[in-house]
Amino acid sequence: MKAKVTEKGVVIPKEFLEGIEEVEIRKADGLVVIVPTTKSDPILALGQNPVECGAPDASECHNKYLYGSNSGTPRSLLFELGIVE
To answer: Which residues pair with 23 in a beta bridge?
Structure first.
């Protein structure tokens, strides 16, 4: 499909946007990209249904409990790199 670009821009047929309420329009590598936006970012839902784990500081020190340190780097990777024994 071709569309005429006017002073106001271009019109995208509604049937191309069925069920979509909002789009993000950006230019990337010489292309105009139109991407449907989501109603909410799933990252914002983290923590809505927390679990009990017996660690009162788990949210602050999760790296320590997951990886053995607070650095954010898994202890196994540090071991492979020879940084820890």
So the answer is: 36
| Residues counted in the chain | 85
Q: Which two tokens stand for residue 85?
A: 């024994």
Whether the model pTM is above 0.90: no
Give CA torsion, residues 63, 67, 68, 70, to 10 deg: -30
Per residue of the chain (85 residues), what is the pLDDT tens digit? 999 999 999 999 999 999 998 999 999 889 999 999 877 777 777 778 777 777 777 777 777 777 776 665 566 666 666 666 6
CA angle, residues 21, 29, 17, in degrees to nearest 5: 20
